[in-house]
Amino acid sequence: MRRAAMLRVAFLLVCAMAAVSVTCGCGPVTAETPAAPPVVRIAPALDSVRARPGRGLVIRATGGTLSEVAAHTGGEPVPGRLDAERRVWRSDWTLKPGAEYDVTATATSPGGPATVLAGRFRTRPAGETFGLAATAPLPGETVGVGMPVILDFDRPIEDKAAVERALEVRSGSPAEGAWRWAGDTRVIYRTRRFWTPRQRVTVTAHLAGVHAADGVHGAVDSTFAFTVGRAQTSVVDTRTHRMTVERDGRTAQRMAISAGMATTREYTTTSGVHLTMDKGDPVRMISPGREKGDPGFYDLLIEHAVRISGSGEYIHAMDNVWAQGRRNVSHGCVNARPDQAAWFYANSLRGDPVTITGTVRELAWDNGWGFWQLTWERWIEGSALRTADAAGEMVSPG
């Protein structure tokens, strides 16, 4: 009996040791630490009441990626974009002054909970404001393939890079183009090559919230559109006294002409790539720098006149067919037979290129719309963004 009890105790000890051995072999059982949720930061900070509009809206995710961003003001969505890693979202443009913004951002991470941050903020109102005073082309205008976009502001611009960043040009046939400043109140957009004909171009100045000078911000955005018409180009050879007009690659008109007599600089027609700027029928032309009674004085009404420079050059009608095709006898303009000048007048759009050759006087790039006189490399030197980029400043879309 005693021996049986001892065997039973020994058996229980072996079982207990076996159980311990099995438990130890599996190792300790520990619970997994849950992943930390991602952190979302919004600038301007939510609940701000005087946020700076010029810095735009920026949303960042740390420890995860942004899966959804929604921002609105006045019921309109705020355009913006994510970076390649989906960790930063930026508004495309600056914010409207004195406006309330609603923002919701969602960030996620693998194996962890999502983070949703939502709220609103208000931007500070603008003090002094600036905006567009005039544009070329006019809204809805149909223009030639060489037409620039010219924006005139209603006050001087000091922070030209900030304003230039806010300017957007969209066309049906995308083309490389750049802005160039011509003083403190004017900026000009030119494509690298002539526009593709028969397309619509939309220009938007996202000026709301843009810092232009100390205490001066844009108050509203402005948008206008124009149409590029058929491709009409003209070539004037002052040595052969001939002008050829081509439309969409085909000769549309050949004209005998007479150009500037070149006895003085002002009577010398300028050579280079001109653009048709405006036209009138008639146009009053008065000799520059001369008064009535002075030698060479004239005061005339000229029919079917199409302006091609800022210094007073036109292509116009003149009934001096004895000189046209033979001699240059004008005061600097290009004149043609009245019926052909009337045809050119009727068929010209602003921005049609007119290339003149054969004289010793070169058209200056800032004489009227002589912008095609500059090479592309020289043209982009006038961009404020080119200077800002070289200085290491941020260049945002648009």
From TrEMBL:
Keywords: Acyltransferase, Cell shape, Cell wall biogenesis/degradation, Lipoprotein, Peptidoglycan synthesis, Signal, Transferase. SUPFAM superfamilies: L,D-transpeptidase catalytic domain-like. The keyword RNA-binding does not apply. It holds the Pfam family YkuD. InterPro entries: Big_10, LD-transpeptidase, LD_TPept_cat_dom, Transpep_catalytic_dom. The active site is at residues 316, 333. GO terms for molecular function: acyltransferase activity; peptidoglycan L,D-transpeptidase activity. Pathway: Cell wall biogenesis; peptidoglycan biosynthesis. The keyword Lipoprotein applies. Residues 232-357 form the L,D-TPase catalytic domain. GO terms for cellular component: extracellular region. PROSITE patterns: LD_TPASE, PROKAR_LIPOPROTEIN. Residues 1-31 form the signal peptide. It comes from the Bacteria. GO terms for biological process: cell wall organization; peptidoglycan-protein cross-linking; regulation of cell shape. PANTHER family: L,D-TRANSPEPTIDASE, L,D-TRANSPEPTIDASE YCIB-RELATED. This is Lipoprotein-anchoring transpeptidase ErfK/SrfK. It comes from Nonomuraea wenchangensis.
